[in-house]
Amino acid sequence: MRIFILIFVAFQIAFLNLVGQSATTNSAESVTYLDTKPTLDESRVTRLVVALLERSHYSQQPFNDALSSKFLGTYLDALDPARMIFLKTDEEEFDIWRNKLDDLLIRYGDVSPGKVIFNQFLKRYEQFVQYVTNLVSTEKFTFDTDEKVFISRKDKPRPANIEEAKKLWRDRVRYEYLQEKLNNEKPEEIIKIITRRYNRQWRMLRELDSEEVLQIFLSSLCHVYDPHSEFMGKSSYENFNISMKLSLCGIGAVLTSEDGYCKIRELMPGPAMRSGKIKVNDRIVAVAQGTNDFVDVIDWKLNKVVELIRGPKGTEVRLTIIPADAPDPSIRKVVTLTRDEITLENQEAKAKLLEIPVKPGETSKVGIIDLPSFYADLGSREVDHKSTTTDVAKLLKKLKAEKVDGIILDLRRNGGGSLEEAINLTGLFIKEGPVVQVRDSDGAITVDSDKDSSILYEGPLIILTSRFSASASEILAAALQDYKRALVVGDSSTHGKGTVQSLVELNRFLRTTNNLGALKLTIRKFYRINGESTQLKGVVPDVVLPSVNNYAEIGEASLPNALPWDTIPSTKYELVNQITKPMVDDLKNRSTARISVDKDFAYVLEEIERFKKAQAEKTISLNEKQRVKEKEEAKKRIEARKEELKKRPPADYLTYEITLKNVDKPGLPSPLSTDKLTDATKDKPTKMDDPDEEKTDADDAILSKVDPTLDETRRILLDLISFVKNGSLASKK
Asked: Among this protein's residues, is 618 annotated catalytic?
């Protein structure tokens, strides 16, 4: 049996956000409710999932009445996270299962309660959409009172009856209407926007099939055990594998759904782009496999169309499309493409090399490696298969060949991935030795070590983290911090996910060739080599930088049912001692002095105070005059910020971009523009117009390119390089 060990964070997503990608439809269309009788496969899968949770989950909790009650609440919140669709009376009706779900699932694999509840959710949601669409088209909204709405209702009770629910729905519509009005939309356009938005969500809900509902239901059970265990149906499991190996076999097109059509949103290097016959905004109306007949895909769910288009490498797929520039939508053309492997390059490791003047006649070369995830082709048996370690190694060799003085490894957006890759990557910076300790549910402790004595890079190193750095990122940061090999810089702590998941393919147990999905199951906790868990507390940087993230509900501690923090004995390891306490203290003091006079961090500190105030209030005003005043004040701040940035002189350093495409080429590519304004706007991606999205100023790209955290980390690295070169503070403990 193949079981993959994985460690990554799963950030909680509101259910309604998951259904917000569908096309517009008429809410009057008939609703097809789920057949509540479980299929044989559903029952078998359910009983297996329950058995694995009871026997193999780290907590070793039996699925009893107490967990059954908790499970019911978790499932209701998964469907209705804002607590405004289900009524209190619905919840009371569902109480018949509160202490019985354990018996039904264990004995019979009976998931009918989950389907009954979902059907009731559909009924309530239809009421919601009908009310919203009628309200927005008939009511004349005014916003001259002191009314306020809650920013979040996750801890609020459900409405007692339909009238109380309608009050909540009306408040929500008024909030959204005011949002659009503040964006200078006309009333008739606002009606269209809001109507389209809710009909789109309603359509997506109606199209959820039994497999997808089962996934929500069983994942809710998993989340009672911990936030990171979950059930993945067939489609989700296939998408998961794609995300891990960063490649798929297809045509190289990013698709979206719009008005019942599957639309080309973006083209990536691949068959579609190479053909020259497919363009952005083309609409796909039919798909055929090789010489087989076409299948009409108008009004199909997007994931089903994607399944048809994907396929084995080297096979043919034919698409019937309406060209984006067609003068008449009745015009069609057929394009034949041969599927090929598509690399998801935006998730690959990449690097930049900066040449920075440090004094007259002297420059320092700094490397920055951006690592969005710890990926690996889990199914490959090739020695040189696609992986984080092999890719980062290539970038490191290139940076070393260019004689960099120091390197920043940027893990701020890295939510984790493969445990093996975290260990292997750590090994590029240290001799052989322990990287992480892992404890099983029975208390047995194993030490996972880097067994390769070679070191690829041993110069000054900074690990840049944030509250979004999780799991594998935390293992690497913690290990290099404990060895005193690297300086950790960033938010007040990392995410705090200190658990290990195994990916169990269910069909292996059930002896079937069908793809029945997989269970991602928390089976272990991991610990630093010094014995401390990263669970809940995360990794605390050596140098903490100001950030709004430090005050937001981000991290393991904010997730329900998170496992506790604890410690185990330290394992033996040999300190590298490239980072010493006097060095850290000096770096902190220097950084603090710079931040106190830095214009960018002054802006960050202002944002922090505004964020803290908003968090304390927990509501937002529906008074138009007040909101206009607030918006104008915000606009003035942003405009002043833009003007200040425009007046700044160009950066005094050169930047070279190194990717896996050019890493093996001799020398360096041409440097990027050093003009902050030019650099901010020249490569801004083309954005599709979406009336449901808030309007943004194109000049905001200027602000998005300003990265005070990275800029200050670069300055800290220059200080660290200076210490190492001069030998100062390095020998002091």
From this structure: no
